[in-house]
Amino acid sequence: MLLMGFKERRLQHKEEFREEILSAAQEIFSREGYAHFSMRKLAARIDHSPTTIYRYFRDKDDLLFHICEDLFSSLHNRIEEILRKAPHPGEALRMTLLEYMSFGFSNPEQYKVAYFSNPELYGSPDEFMTRETMGLRFYCTFRELVEKSIQSGYLRDTDVDLVSQTLLAAAHGLVTNVIFFKDFPMQRPELLMEMLVDALLKGFAA
Description:
Arc Repressor Mutant, subunit A
């Protein structure tokens, strides 16, 4: 039992240190940008040697990949929770779009780092669609929700990927505006996202 307790504490310590590395990396990516990020800066930030960090992550792209995967994992988990609560796909779709934007508003630094650091992080479109990642899982789950909304008659019969990508692009655009254009006298984000989702779904309505 003592040995098991030691192993569990060691694993917990490693996981906590891994999260500390990712949190510090996200701060540096956000503050200095992808081009100016270095493992040496990260090591100084957490007061450990670069060698220690390399035991957990290969390079800055590996760090960035895990930051992105954590974001998409959170988004995917939220969709799964919505699907458990909302039996009708149309209502679930509306809630998912609102939740997506709400997450971006609440986590602007993670969102900014994930989406605007390295656009080639997941590879080519073909590589993205064939590699098992949380990014792909999130998109496929969202796409399946759109497909069910079409099959139920909530949305008109249109190309599933076209609708899915249009909805996500519009939601992403609003989140980006709220994050980057803080000097513009915008309406409250909650009002903007409600109006945007209502307009989008009305435009695709059956």
